[in-house]
Design goal:
By secondary structure, this protein is an alpha/beta fold. Helix content is 34%, strand content 18%. It has helices at residues 39-43, 68-78, 91-102, 127-135, 139-151, 158-164, 208-211, 213-220, 235-238, 240-254; strands at residues 3-6, 9-16, 21-25, 47-51, 84-89, 107-113, 198-203, 224-229. An eight-stranded mixed sheet has the order 1-2-4-3-5-6-7-8, sandwiched between helices. The protein is globular and about 55 Å long.
Length: 258
């Protein structure tokens, strides 16, 4: 199993293909397996790297606060990659935008697929969801069912449920062990500072607050485009070929000359 030691954590990764480097960051509803159907398409043109975020899948770390953003940069450093494109799904998209704002010199492009956005309340969960969770005896099972109602309205099969079980929500961390927020103003207030080519792909069946993010980024960032696809939050599993075409078109146009 390939791992790199980064900031006290052991982070799993794999890679395929050759060319300019692309680092895939998964979302909060699974580990790097969320990118499995897309990886072969991107690897035809790029050196495509996946990593499990700390505490997801096969990646581990000490029970102390940490920075997912610093971990992602640490993976690139450990692999000897000076510049890369970041392509993030959901939580990974939020992290990618944070990194693009803090370290644009290390990126040649950034893409968020149904991304979160620092400083933006997507308001995905309702008071009814919170009440059901609080009333449930099996908190983990209740959290999974609520998550799948919100993020997988087109249906959840066993693959989606297995991916969810690879998350810290399914394997709760000790109290107080939480990710650190990046320093400075949140990304939503700094979109005009994005200095690399940027793409946001919106899922048409996402909660309304998340559907607002693509137009926000596209209107505020200097070099950004927005695409909406007919899917729920599991874009990489529902529409891998269509999503790959959108990503490849964007990445090919932004890629540095070899």
């Amino acid at each position: 199993m390939a791992v790199v030691d980064v900031n006290g954590a052991r982070l799993w990764y794999d890679e395929a293909g050759s060319g300019p480097a692309v680092l895939l960051l998964h979302g909060g509803l699974g580990d790097s397996g969320l990118w499995e159907p897309v990886l072969p398409f991107l690897a035809e043109r790029f050196r495509t790297i996946r990593t499990d975020l700390r505490f997801f899948g096969k990646s581990t770390g000490p029970a102390v606060p940490w920075s997912w953003q610093d971990d992602a940069l640490g993976v690139l450093d450990e692999l000897g990659i000076e510049r890369a494109a970041l392509v993030g799904l959901s939580l990974g998209g939020k992290l990618a935008l944070d990194i693009a704002l803090a370290h644009p010199e290390q990126l040649w492009a950034v893409a968020g697929v149904a991304p979160g956005l620092g400083g933006h309340d997507g308001a995905a969960y309702t008071e009814e969801h919170e009440a059901r969770y609080e009333a449930a005896e099996d908190k983990v099972e209740a959290m999974m069912e609520i998550d799948l109602e919100v993020w997988a309205p087109l249906g959840a099969d066993e693959r989606i449920r297995k991916l969810w079980r690879a998350t810290p929500d399914a394997n709760p961390l000790p109290d107080g062990v939480e990710p650190l927020d990046p320093p400075g103003a949140p990304a939503k207030e700094r979109l005009g500072e994005l200095a690399v080519p940027t793409l946001v792909v919106t899922a048409a069946h996402d909660p309304a607050g998340f559907r607002e993010i693509g137009p926000l980024v596209a209107s505020a960032a200097p070099d950004a485009r927005h695409v909406e696809l007919d899917s729920d939050h599991y874009l990489t599993l529902r529409e891998p070929e269509l999503l790959s075409r959108v990503l490849l078109e964007f990445l090919a146009a932004a890629a540095p000359e070899e």
